Amino acid sequence: MSERNVARSTDAVVVGAGPVGMTSAALLAARGINVIVLEMRSGTSEEPKAISIDDEALRTYQQAGIDHDISSIIVPGTGTRYYDAGNRPVFQARGAIPFRLGHPFKNPFAQPDLEKVLAQGLINHERVTLEYDTKVTNVEQDDDFAYVTTEGPKGTEVLAARYVLGADGGRSVVRELVMDNAMSGRSYSDVWLVADTLEDPHTERYGMHHGDPKRPHVIVPGLDGRCRYEFRLFAGEGEPSQAPDFELIKRLVAPYRDIEPHQVERAINYRFNAVNADRYREGRFFLLGDAAHMMPPFAGQGLNSGIRDAANLTWKVAEAIKGKAPDSILDSYEPERKPHAGAIIAQSVRLGRVVMTTSERVARNRDEVIRQKLGTADGRAFFEEMRYRPIAQFVSDLSVTDNAGRAIGQPLVFDTTSRTTARMDHVVGNDWVLLGVDVAPEAWAEAKQVAERFDASRWYIPFDDVQPRTAEVDGLLIDLDGSLYREFEEYRGKFVLVRPDHFTSAVFAPDELAVILEKTASLRQNKASLAVASV
């Protein structure tokens, strides 16, 4: 390191202090990792870009211990209502099981509010250094460290870190310097006007997608009178990145409200991209959020996909730095996240093409098909429960059994150890967990070997309204309202090894223990902590 005149060393560097970068830093710090966050802007953004955060993201913030802070800035949302070509409501899409992940399903918010909450949390955290007005000018790596050269208030500096997370947006410097900007996909020619307004009369807790081919548009009410309007523009009405004329905004929102110039918080015309990075990892460098993928806004998943990246990657980085897992565990990041991000991109494109079509023929056929499908139980579930939404199921070395790689829910449980009622993650924690679901009490003695390998806590989930006695577990989780039984019914008689991001890694019967021990041997290593000294 000395040959490079390294000024400072840390465990991880995060490039970009937008929501995804700051989320990554918060998650790493919560796991005891020292982080330096670099941001070229002078502070948090005042532009309300992202406007919807889902239950998965809120659960991720729960891992970082800041979900209550985030909840203070959201509208507890109830999904999206879709309207036909005549602007009549057709159906409302909600989560299939309300509150399954322990948080409201789809929640409007303002990005400046989120960034302020995240930044304040990082500033107050002893393991995080947040540096504004700092540009990354060069990056290098060797067998032991990644090196980041910066220009900022302290002049030119070289930072050394075990890993670098590039969360620096669609024009990512990390992607440019490390991965030659390689992305696949396309940009679209459609121009949309986005207007964020104040003092709005809308009070709905759901977004509204109006499939009127004469003027497709989206309305998302926010907190305290904020409201996002998005309108498809036509030839001669505006060009991308051009500030729209106020008179045009006034005319477009006229069916819903009167508006004055001071009530327009932000307005811009834009074209959207549907692109996915060719690589998410290059050695000690990783891409997250818009640096890794960009998508149309129609599914409301741009920011949420970035937060999924952070949730997937940060616990693996922490385990590699602490010497609990080999560096190869990080190879699972791209195969787990890239396909799902690609599926979300494709879904967003389809929603834009079908819901936001400007063809009267396509809109008419769309409305007829949807109404026919809504007349059947399966069709109604498909639309109203959003079964068209891609669900992540990971295929990587971390999914040890064929039926693993899926997220578990977070039901309300009674913990017999603390004698308290809480959401499940609060009880079992955010590290590895071994759950025994309605297994025989004596099966725990052998399963203990799996728990010890992963330093996993052990929790018994009994069914049939009983409370077994065994000394081999950390506690019993008791069902209170049927949600625990519903969530784990398919796993009865099995052990479930759960990763720190609450996805299953292995599902196995008691007599399959030897096979599981063999398959998981490469996922752990017994080494002293490799963490760099505190910043």
The biggest sheet amounts to:
8 strands, mixed
* Residues in β-strands, percent: 25-35%
Measured between the Cα atoms of the first and last residue, the distance is 16 Å
Provide the low-confidence segments as ranges. 527-535
General shape: globular
Query: How would you classify the helix and strand content by structural class?
Result: alpha+beta
Average of pLDDT:
94
| Total of DSSP H or I helical runs spanning 4+ residues | 14
**Fraction of helical residues:** 25-40%
Rg, alpha carbons: 24 Å
Counted beta strands: 27
Describe the 3D structure.
- The protein is built from 14 helices and 27 strands.
- The protein has 535 residues and is α+β, with helices and mostly antiparallel strands.
- The strands form five sheets. Strands 1, 2, 7, 8, 9, 10, 18 and 19 form an eight-stranded mixed beta sheet that branches. A seven-stranded mixed beta sheet has the order 5-4-13-14-15-12-16, sandwiched between helices. Strands 22-21-25-24-23-26-27 form a seven-stranded mixed beta sheet.
- α1 packs parallel to α4, α1 packs parallel to α7 (302-321) and α7 (302-321) packs antiparallel against α8.
- The protein is globular.
Topology:
Elements: E1 8-15, H1 19-30, E2 35-38, E3 52-54, H2 55-63, H3 67-71, E4 80-83, E5 89-93, E6 106-108, H4 111-123, E7 128-131, E8 135-141, E9 146-152, E10 155-166, H5 173-179, E11 183-187, E12 192-197, E13 207-210, E14 217-221, E15 227-232, H6 246-253, E16 264-270, E17 273-277, E18 281-282, E19 285-287, E20 293-294, H7 302-321, H8 333-355, H9 360-374, H10 377-384, E21 412-415, E22 420-423, H11 424-428, E23 433-437, H12 444-453, E24 457-461, E25 475-479, H13 483-488, E26 494-498, E27 504-508, H14 513-519
Parallel strand pairs: 1-2, 1-10, 2-7, 4-13, 10-19, 23-24, 24-25
Antiparallel strand pairs: 3-6, 4-5, 8-9, 9-10, 11-17, 12-15, 12-16, 13-14, 14-15, 17-20, 18-19, 21-22, 21-25, 23-26, 26-27
